[in-house]
Amino acid sequence: MSLPRSTLLLWLAGLSGLLAIAGNLFALPALVFAFKPATTLLIIAWAWPRGADTPALRRWLRAGLVLSLAGDVFLMWPAGFLPGLVSFLLAHLAYIVAFTRRTAFAARPSAFAMYGVVAALLLWQLWPGVPPPLRAPVLAYVVCLASMAAQAGASWLAARGGATEPFARSAALGGVLFMTSDTLLAFNKFSAPVPLAALWILLTYWVAQGLIARSLRARTGP
């Protein structure tokens, strides 16, 4: 008996992600170049049929996933940090717009206050190690990242007890893990090496993307 398409894509994404992580850990660039973008592509393929009942939300989440794929490709190159940062910044803006399809922006100020404090503390720790030419882009990125995670959290708070709560909760958890992944990446780049950095950064990143994609309702028809 064959696996359903969605299950097969998730298994393939997991395998591809493990190969990309192995490529980073064991200095095998061919594995990274082949399987890092392939993993995100497989997550996009898994997410693509979802969300037919919420077309505006689906459209913006798809945009965020595709922009994330562009960021993945840019970050594989030595000179690609800034273009990759911009790609992911745009991805977070797309996710913010997506999450406002469920809940008005900053409808739960407590979520924004919490993430604002976390972002400020992280920037305070990282700032001395950020090169001056990158400080403005990094600041803009952190603001967008924290706002994305806060809006996802606000959407979950607003959906508590309703039919959409499981989907909003998935997006909120994805926001937490996305912020975790980027925090690890930033400390590894601007502060001190993180042990097994590729493992933790990529694992939390792809689980975050999967959870955000899972916030779209699965297709029920053929």
Polypeptide structure, described:
The model has no long low-confidence stretch (mean pLDDT 96). The chain is globular. It starts with a helix and ends in an 8-residue tail after the last helix. By secondary structure, the chain is mainly α. Helix 1 runs antiparallel to helix 2, helix 4 packs parallel to helix 6 and helix 5 (109-126) runs antiparallel to helix 6. The protein contains eight helices and no strands. It has helices at 5-25, 29-47, 55-75, 81-99, 109-126, 132-159, 165-190, 197-214. Helices cover 77% and strands 0% of the residues. The chain has one domain.
Walk me through the topology.
Elements: H1 5-25, H2 29-47, H3 55-75, H4 81-99, H5 109-126, H6 132-159, H7 165-190, H8 197-214
Q: Order of helices and strands, N to C? A: HHHHHHHH
**Number of helix segments?**
8
Broad shape: globular
Q: Which structural class should the secondary elements be placed in?
A: mainly alpha
Give the domain tally.
Answer: 1
**Regions with little confidence, pLDDT below 50 for 5+ residues:** none
Main β-sheet description: none
Helix content: over 70%
